[in-house]
């Protein structure tokens, strides 16, 4: 059908959707491109979300074979050297890649004078949250049990064993994230026998989580000033726990934006948050509400737990900090001290030297770290 229409140009919006070579959407888009003229334009706010190879896949749509003839060749020539330990080699390959893509990339930032010139400032702050006593005991028990289950060090494993190890590491990571949010997140079967049923805190117990305590302090000031906040969480269970807690200590109304809701229900929630002065807080996940909606009624964006993909986290923040916003936006990030959240935040900062050509990977790269990391 496309061939019969004789199109001369193809524009691909949200081009990061074709970052994975093997997906059906990527294959379909590239088949369509073959039937269209040579003018191809890719639009994206986050062209590289997970790994440098994301960029190669999109360039295969724009200029097939330009960066490399295959992903394996691109990984050999760019991905591995840029991520490698040799500084001279890393810088050389990074600069070469930048020079190669520069003629074909037009980048616009909100900070540019001619782009969203009237957009107000954005103020970002991180909070080091203490571990509550029960939370610390549970965290230590889960970590010890999980590490014992991870298995041998990476160099000793074959491909199948590495795959199984990745699954165990990711399971440990999610369990520890749940504990860092609130002990009530953790499923009953994962609680150690040393902690009795009577010692397990209720969902409504703010004091059982350092981050919940800090969140209460932040929200109290926001609502007292008559402002609104959106809170991003990674887990539905955490959203439900926070909803219960916030309704107990805040006068303003709290709403949820969930993927399980029907489209008209989600639209109604957004409309109420944007227009109803009684609605002070919206709870949502980055997966569901991180793109495609406008929440400029909020002057505060709270990342209760980190996404570990800075591109997606930035997109989520931009639900409030976007055209139409007239006030300064305050971004709050909560990190639990002395836990893996703190260590991973440090790793993320070390990777920021690649930010001009790539964005740090999502959570799955964590599974490939060795035991010490």
UniProtKB/TrEMBL annotation:
What is a GO molecular function of this protein?
Answer: hydrolase activity
Q: Name one Pfam family in it.
A: Helicase_C
Please state every residue range assigned to the domain named Helicase C-terminal: 214-373
Q: Looking at the keywords, is Cytoplasm present?
A: no
Instruction: Fetch the Gene3D superfamilies from UniProt.
Output: P-loop containing nucleotide triphosphate hydrolases, Tandem AAA-ATPase domain
Q: Which SUPFAM superfamilies match?
A: P-loop containing nucleoside triphosphate hydrolases
Annotated PANTHER family: SNF2/RAD54 HELICASE FAMILY (PTHR10799)
Name this polypeptide is given: Helicase C-terminal domain-containing protein
């Amino acid at each position: 059908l496309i061939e019969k229409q004789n199109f001369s140009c193809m524009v691909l919006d949200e081009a990061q959707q074709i970052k994975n070579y093997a997906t059906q959407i990527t294959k379909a888009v590239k088949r369509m491109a073959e039937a269209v003229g040579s003018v191809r334009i890719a639009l994206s706010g986050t062209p590289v979300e997970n790994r440098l190879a994301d960029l190669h896949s999109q360039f295969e749509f724009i200029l097939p074979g330009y960066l490399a003839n295959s992903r394996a060749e691109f990984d050999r020539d760019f991905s591995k050297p840029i991520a490698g330990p040799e500084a001279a080699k890393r810088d050389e390959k990074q600069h070469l890649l930048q020079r190669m893509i520069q003629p074909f990339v037009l980048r616009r930032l909100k900070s540019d004078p001619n782009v969203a010139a009237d957009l107000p400032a954005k103020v970002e702050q991180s909070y080091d949250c203490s571990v509550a006593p029960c939370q610390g005991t549970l965290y230590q028990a889960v970590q010890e049990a999980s590490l014992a289950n991870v298995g041998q060090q990476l160099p000793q494993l074959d491909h199948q064993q590495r795959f199984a190890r990745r699954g165990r590491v990711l399971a440990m990571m999610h369990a520890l994230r749940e504990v860092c949010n609130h002990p009530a997140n953790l499923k009953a079967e994962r609680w150690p026998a040393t902690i009795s049923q009577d010692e397990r805190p209720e969902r409504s117990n703010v004091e059982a989580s350092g981050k919940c305590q800090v969140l209460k302090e932040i929200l109290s000031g926001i609502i007292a000033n008559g402002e609104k906040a959106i809170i991003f969480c990674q887990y539905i269970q955490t959203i439900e726990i926070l909803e219960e807690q916030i309704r107990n200590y805040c006068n303003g109304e709290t709403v949820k934006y969930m993927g399980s809701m029907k489209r008209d229900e989600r639209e109604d929630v957004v409309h109420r948050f944007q227009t109803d002065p009684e609605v002070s807080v919206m709870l949502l996940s980055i997966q569901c509400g991180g793109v495609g909606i406008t929440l400029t009624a909020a002057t505060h964006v709270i990342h209760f737990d980190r996404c570990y993909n800075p591109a997606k986290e930035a997109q989520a923040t931009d639900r409030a900090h976007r055209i139409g916003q007239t006030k300064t936006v305050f971004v709050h990030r909560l990190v639990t001290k002395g836990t893996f959240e703190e260590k991973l935040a440090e790793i993320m900062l070390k990777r920021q030297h690649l930010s001009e050509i790539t964005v740090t990977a999502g959570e799955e790269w964590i599974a490939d770290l060795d035991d010490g990391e």
